[in-house]
């Protein structure tokens, strides 16, 4: 038969084991969250809009391929409002699609009256005005005129993951 001291000791060990397991689980969960990519809403909009197809992975300008070559957004001379209008309404005859729901038909573009979408502008992502603003803010705050590109700036496009292979060639 077990003594009361032995039972008490076994209960303490069980409690200590449970406490230790809880602390260890909390540590693992906290550590995992700290290492998980932290994508900003603007970086998510960049990805959702498939901007990298034409502008390259971090906006440094398109290269050759099936998609049109988009300009280098780090060096663009467009104003913030011009960038917003371009993303929302696209650009005729350039391959730049419009990305806002209702462009031309429900939202005036480039000062034109509401009407049909021009034949030479394709539909891109179906963003709200708020999503367009989020993407524009991301580009304006982090990309436009903010060169040269560094590893840290590159990582903004990849959830602040400095180990992303795309960012490896930047200082």
SSE inventory with pairings:
Layout: H1 4-35, H2 41-48, H3 52-55, H4 80-89, E1 98-100, E2 123-127, H5 129-142, H6 151-155
Give a quick rundown of the structure.
The protein is mainly α and 171 residues long. The chain has 6 helices and 2 strands, in the order ααααββαα. Mean pLDDT is 83; it is low at 2-33.
Descriptive overview:
This protein has 171 residues and is mainly alpha-helical. It contains six helices and two strands, in the order H-H-H-H-E-E-H-H. It has a two-stranded parallel ribbon with strand order 1-2. The protein starts with a helix and ends in a 16-residue tail after the last helix. The model is unreliable at 2-33 (pLDDT under 50).
């Amino acid at each position: 038969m077990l003594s009361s001291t032995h039972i008490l000791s076994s209960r303490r060990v069980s409690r200590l084991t449970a406490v230790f397991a809880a602390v260890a689980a909390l540590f693992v969960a906290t550590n995992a969250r700290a290492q998980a990519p932290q994508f900003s809403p603007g970086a998510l909009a960049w990805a959702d809009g498939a901007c990298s197809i034409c502008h390259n992975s971090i906006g440094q300008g398109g290269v050759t391929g099936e998609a049109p070559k988009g300009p280098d957004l780090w060096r663009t001379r467009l104003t913030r409002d011009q960038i917003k209008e371009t993303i929302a309404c696209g650009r005729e005859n350039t391959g730049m699609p419009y990305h806002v729901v209702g462009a031309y038909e429900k939202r005036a573009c480039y000062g034109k009256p509401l009407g049909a979408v021009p034949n030479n502008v394709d539909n891109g992502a179906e963003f709200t005005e708020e999503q367009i603003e989020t993407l524009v803010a991301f580009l304006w705050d982090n990309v436009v005129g903010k060169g040269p590109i560094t590893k840290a700036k590159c990582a903004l496009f990849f959830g602040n993951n400095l180990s992303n292979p795309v960012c490896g060639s930047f200082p």
